[in-house]
Amino acid sequence: MGIKNWFDGSIYTGEFKAGKANGNGKLSEIDGTNFEGVFENDLPAGVGLKTWKNGDEYYGFVKEGLAHGKGKKDWVTGRSYVGDWKFGVPYGKGTEISEDGTEYIGDFRDGVSSGKGTRIEIDGSIAKGVFDGGMLNGKGSKTWYDGTIYLGQFEEGMASGSGKKTWYDGTSYEGEFKEGRANGTGTMTWGNGDKYHGQFFDGK
Q1: Could you tell me where the beta strands, DSSP code E, fall in the chain?
Q2: Range(s) of the domain holding residue 107
Q3: CB 108 within 8 Å of CB 87
Q4: Of 202, 149, 195, whose CA–CA distance to 180 is shortest?
Q5: If we measure between CA atoms, which residue out of 137, 189, 192, 185 comes closest to residue 166?
Q6: Res. 204: pLDDT tops 80
Q7: Quick one: CA dihedral 104, 106, 109, 114, positive or negative?
Q8: What mean pLDDT do residues 47-71 have?
């Protein structure tokens, strides 16, 4: 056990090997950031707890001082993420709860939801499919809180391309969509059985 002072003012207290921090220890940085856990060659490397001055916390695996592997981070804003990390950012599979309570379960890349996943909105709406940059892009589905369902193609989070939307009252539209509305060739079927097949523009 021992103490080491870094040139930047950081202080390490813990185990040493060959003159470097190796083993269990605690690093206190001048900006208020602290890490307590396993060290390797003067860097956090293993399982540990990292806390920031503003109250943010991360517990899990680290590599070269960054979250890497399985871990969980809680922000003081109410946001949380648990899952895979890659050099400080969510990367792989995980679950994120946003500040507003929205929950996303699925694939992450470079810190944002990208790949297959499910997003649950605070109003009960559920979106499933392929995400890119935090939004549905590609094949997917969305179910609204009132029972309305859309199955088909998405672009930047909105129904775009071929798809089918069925409203809670039994009315349905199957055909081409653009920016969330019926645009192009399609068939509208009402709950009483009436049908219209033809061109639609801006949902009409």
Answers
A1: 2-5, 11-17, 20-28, 34-40, 43-51, 57-63, 66-74, 80-86, 89-97, 103-109, 112-120, 126-132, 135-143, 149-155, 158-166, 172-178, 181-189, 195-200
A2: 70-145
A3: no
A4: 202
A5: 189
A6: no
A7: negative
A8: 96
Question: Tens digit of pLDDT for each residue in 104-150?
Answer: 999 999 999 999 999 999 999 999 999 998 999 999 999 999 999 99
60 in any annotated domain: no
Check whether residue 7 and residue 22 sit in a common domain. Answer: yes
Q: How many domains does the chain have?
A: 3
Instruction: Return mean pLDDT, the chain.
Output: 94
Cβ pair 86, 71 in contact under 8 A: no
Give the C-alpha separation, 10 to 192, whole Å: 73
pTM value is: 0.88
Domain check: are 103 and 81 in the same one? Answer: yes
Residue 103 φ then ψ, to 5°: -115, 135
Q: Give residues with Cβ within 8 angstroms of 87, minimum separation 6.
A: 63, 64, 66, 67, 68
Residues 6+ apart with CB under 8 A from 192: none
111: tokens are 């810190």
